[in-house]
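hiii so um. not sure if this is the right channel but i have a protein structure encoded as tokens and i wanna go backwards to a sequence. like what aa goes where. can anyone help
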């Protein structure tokens, strides 16, 4: 089998590549990335791309159809990947997350790719009170990032093709990676605990957030690249995570504090409502992918983050201004003149 992973040099990609190489050693696995974050290595002595057969460099906005020739599966991870970046670069977010994804999907369909996997997000539910959200429940995207995911799902549904398409609405990512991000709720809390011995929750702590470790995201992607239409339909949108991994933010803070002795937790009970709060129902994913269910517990994710940050000798109390925050990396590229405001290399 031949697999192309677009956006492989970010936070999730290295873990996906490592999993696929270990699980399917005979597969041809290639990567395609513009390398915004290639230098953001964390606690490793070898670049994760050594597990690839080929690493190609380029912008997904410029990917040509012939680049997809010969692949059995394409995994689309490339994205402006969180709310702060999406808000700062709203137009570019749409261009990369939605328009480029659709261009790649259309080219994949025309060149005979069997399976297309799109990394969507549970953030499409926005603020959702009441029962855990299922795939057919109303969506409430409140950020440019979430809107781009909804828009792509809608366009993929309308694509006239026999290609099997799987949109994985991932829970909030967490866990250790060869290119760690600390602009994610659990990762941020662990970094605060280690560097400051204090976690400050910038909400009243009640918002709900489902979590999934990056290792379990890789497991879901492995399932999706092999999925047959008989298992869920030709075009499937599915929440990817686990029912027992819906947490309130305050509980995440307390779990991290318990794992890092001496950590205090401060919760701002007067804070305005969070723009994201949702419980998610992952029953469909459990039914369709029983052998690929999340395996990493919250305690294990925290433990692995602590161990990884210790390997890095991490102690930066000002980490929110470091290259471990993706928005800061882009701002520094632009400030140095290496990137334009449209996030194109100069």
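sure thing!! here u go:
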């Amino acid at each position: 089998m031949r697999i192309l992973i677009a956006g492989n040099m970010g936070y999730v990609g290295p873990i996906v590549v490592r999993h696929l190489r270990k699980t399917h050693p005979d597969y041809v696995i290639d990567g395609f990335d513009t390398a915004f974050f290639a230098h953001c290595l964390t606690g490793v002595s070898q670049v994760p791309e050594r597990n690839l057969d080929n690493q190609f460099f380029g912008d997904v906005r410029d990917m040509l159809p012939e680049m997809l020739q010969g692949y059995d599966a394409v995994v689309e991870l490339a994205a402006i990947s969180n709310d702060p970046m999406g808000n700062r670069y709203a137009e570019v977010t749409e261009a990369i997350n939605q328009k480029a994804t659709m261009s790649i999907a259309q080219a994949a369909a025309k060149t005979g790719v069997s399976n297309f996997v799109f990394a969507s997000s549970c953030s499409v539910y926005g603020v959702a009170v009441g029962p855990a959200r299922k795939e057919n429940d109303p969506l409430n995207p409140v950020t440019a990032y979430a809107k781009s995911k909804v828009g792509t799902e809608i366009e993929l549904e309308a694509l006239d093709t026999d290609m099997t398409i799987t949109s994985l609405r991932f829970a909030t990512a967490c866990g250790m990676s060869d290119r760690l991000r600390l602009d994610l709720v659990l990762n941020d809390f662990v970094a605060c605990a280690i560097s400051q011995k204090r976690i400050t929750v910038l909400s009243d702590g009640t918002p709900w957030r489902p979590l999934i470790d990056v290792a379990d995201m890789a497991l879901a992607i492995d399932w999706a690249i092999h999925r047959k239409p008989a298992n869920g339909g030709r075009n499937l949108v599915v929440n990817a995570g686990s029912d027992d991994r819906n947490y309130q933010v305050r509980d995440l803070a307390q779990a991290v504090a318990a794992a890092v002795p001496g950590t205090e937790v401060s919760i701002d009970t007067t804070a305005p409502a969070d723009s994201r709060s949702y419980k998610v129902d992952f029953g469909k994913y459990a039914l369709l992918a029983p052998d690929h269910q999340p395996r990493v517990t919250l305690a294990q994710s925290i433990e692995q983050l602590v161990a990884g940050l210790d390997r890095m000798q991490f102690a930066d109390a000002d980490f929110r201004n470091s290259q471990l925050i993706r928005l800061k990396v882009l701002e520094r590229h632009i400030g140095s003149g290496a990137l334009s405001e449209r996030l194109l290399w100069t």
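oh and The two ends are 36 Å apart (CA to CA).
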